[in-house]
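Purpose: get a first structural picture of the assembly so the mutagenesis plan has something to point at.
Setup: two entries, given in the order below. No constraints added.
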Amino acid sequence: MTSPDQHTLAHHFIITAADCNSQREISIAHLVTLIIETATEHANSIGVGFDRLISHGMSWVLSRLSIELDAVPSINRRYKLVTWVESINRLYSERNFEIVDVESGSRVGYARTIWMAIDMESRRPADLSALHILERYITDRPCPIAKQGKLLPVTAPTSEATYMFVTSDIDINRHVTTRRYIELIIDRWELGFWDANRVKRFDIAFRHEARYGEVATITAAPHGESAGVYDAAIQCGGNVTTLARITFVPRA
Amino acid sequence: MTSPDQHTLAHHFIITAADCNSQREISIAHLVTLIIETATEHANSIGVGFDRLISHGMSWVLSRLSIELDAVPSINRRYKLVTWVESINRLYSERNFEIVDVESGSRVGYARTIWMAIDMESRRPADLSALHILERYITDRPCPIAKQGKLLPVTAPTSEATYMFVTSDIDINRHVTTRRYIELIIDRWELGFWDANRVKRFDIAFRHEARYGEVATITAAPHGESAGVYDAAIQCGGNVTTLARITFVPRA
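Result (structure tokens, whole complex):
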């Protein structure tokens, strides 16, 4: 539902069993899917969706995403994601989200995303100046979570796995799905760890697109001395595909 | 939406990018998820949902599923799944589905499912007699696809892989997700094969529940002399977890 001035859009959803992790909460991969779908709906509704970009030979690419959760949305409850645009410049646009528990009316979390456009032919970053119409929709609605810090490659992994991308990992653009990148990171922690801890904050940066048949190395390690904070990375050949940082808190 | 006599329920959906395989069609795993969600909605609406079964110490378990498609639902289009109950006896209930392309009004496929109940404590099949209320909702609406034939273990695999179940494969009941079983089967065929062929019919039988950390062997082989028909199986230790049969047709 778009607001009358079209500055925000609210996407309502109920969390089904298939959307959940083994702790009966929305999986991070599914939450990110909903964030992307909500962004896409709003962009379409204000005339800056994928269709419009294709007419300029460009496509939107999700570059960075950060989520912070006071409570993890849980099974059979109703939520809404509210989205708005914080900024746009030649290189990128910032789009934020609020996650609301519809039954209690309370905000359970926020997300920040950064979108770039790429030139479909060169696969290089494209100039967003053609989308100056987007400036009309910028709002100063607050998003009270920190912007994403610099994510770093994992230098001394305490956990490591390899994985070859297969048929069901490939999306409509012939790249690896966002879901698969996120699951590969989530899977660096054992089921028992997830039973004892939940995500407080999840940061991810998409650096390079992986393809069918490529072999990924997934690594993770504690982030300095901060308790409960970990860095993770996915590398394919010499390329850093994805960097992430997860902050866990013990469950009550 | 339930019909006035509650004999059918229609679940509407639009296929987003995240629901698709690399051929811009609904993935089989996502179609099965929607089938399960539609079944759950109808069962809840007529008072035989999971909540009711729990009060009898039982839970619904999807035992077998068959899908036949004249066309595979594709990206950005609107569809509906219509469900109804064909039969119930002490051991199982048959529930069928029709997949309708809402824009053209044409039926693009059908599905048949067989549900059993298990006793939550013994994990053994439970007696469905307590759910005789379900008999009221049986209809003779036709489902013009064949019932599932006997699926057989793969004796001489032409394709084989192993996989260990990880955190993101585990569902709210601490078993492996239906999605993961289906993807493991789908992944026995390379991306190029899927570009050249589509699923005409998909049969799957869920035999035994797999758990976190178990190692699965996934095998596939042509089914006798029938062109385009393959058997597939997932085994964990000595147990057959899942059996499947896929009938492919070349894309136009």
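The mean pLDDT of chain A is 95.
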